[in-house]
Amino acid sequence: MDRQQEFVLRTIEERDIRFVRLWFTDVIGTLKSVAIAPAELEGAFGEGIGFDGSAIEGLSRVSESDMLLRPDPSTFQVLPWRTDAEHPGTARIFCDIHTPDGDPARSDPRNVLKRALDRAAAQGYTFYTHPEIEFYLFKGPLVRGAVPEPVDYVGYFDNFPGGTTHDFRRTAITVLESMGISVEFSHHEGGPGQNEIDLRYADALTTADNVMTFRTVLKEVAGEMGLYASFMPKPLEGQPGSGMHTHLSLFEGDSNAFYEAGAEFQLSRTARQFIAGILRHAAEITAVTNQFVNSYKRLWSGGEAPSYVSWGHNNRSALVRVPMYKPSKGQSVRVEYRALDVAANPYLAFAVLLAAGLKGVEEGYELPAGAEDDIWSLTDAERRAMGIRPLPSNLDHAIAIMEDSELVAETLGEGVFDYFLRNKRQEWSDYRSQVTPFELHRFLPML
């Protein structure tokens, strides 16, 4: 037993933890959980906890259903809600999924990201991510079939004295930070009841774990306040969608590989090749970063949602934005990918973004000219003249492009790749069979 495992077991005893929740995700990104008694955790560290993998979306076939959960002790945290005298203490640990032979399960989303990170590490890189997570707060409880009612009708950065969202964000951030998740900013977003909380940058695996914890924390806090937190990409017609703009950077040891003093925007050749990789493979990875029918209503509804494959400095209409740099802070040079959904599976999304960027570095892709105009305001002819092409217009289009992508197939692995294709085709088919005539007309370019 290593020191981290010993620390977890000692903490459980000292804090009188009665339940340990083992967390993992399915391919779509739904959080799964099984609770075990503290006495079982030491055995789980050594041998794992068996479960039926075929009952989890995309994980394994019935003929290969036996799987093992192996807790990662570095992710141990005590859950801070419902810890009074009437509710015994509960903790959570993220798990890696293994086969009965002890090998990492190739269809485990956490393992998909680990494989991508290992590939980057073999080239000397560590991949860091920093997400800006948007979401809506609605008055609860929700009524099936009814339009949800936002908790307020104020806008971007508005300071609304006595507003519900102030209290919500303060409570949610307090809970997140008590679990070791650092928050950088929070504010009201542009839509009614829409908010944003930005997590501090961390390595991509930690960030993905944090995103999954973030969603759970916000649902818990909202429920206790009689509210509902929605991570749907486009929950309200005519209002801004919710994205998860994510800042990306590669480090070589303690040095930012994206930084070059004196270069344009301080972007190194590695950074420019990384951006070029994301741009060239953007259409191939979109079915992963934007995995739902509803995702394309956000991408193609205007506003600041990116619809075209382009990059620019400080240009919020571009797919990839280079944020304004600080000459004295080379370590902060980074790029921002703006299409990513708040509802994406963060493990798979970060894996394909890293794979696309690394491909650009490995193959020496040349970065095309940047766009500094509002891309939405350009005509189709102007965009074509600039070499700017659209992202996939709907889920079916995105799946068709992804199907021919060697990069995505290699990154996700055969099991996840095939499941994703089947699941998303079925989702699209179900949607087309139920869509109303109004919606068919309203969103025809996206359908």
UniProtKB/TrEMBL annotation:
Pfam family, one: Gln-synt_N
Alphabetized Gene3D superfamilies for the sequence: Glutamine synthetase, N-terminal domain (3.10.20.70), Glutamine synthetase/guanido kinase, catalytic domain (3.30.590.10)
Cofactor(s) this protein requires: Mg(2+)
Keyword Nucleotide-binding annotated: yes
Molecular functions (GO terms): ligase activity
Transmembrane segment boundaries: none
Sorted UniProt keywords: ATP-binding, Ligase, Magnesium, Metal-binding, Nucleotide-binding
Protein name: Type I glutamate--ammonia ligase
Organism: Kineococcus glutinatus
Underlying gene: glnA_2
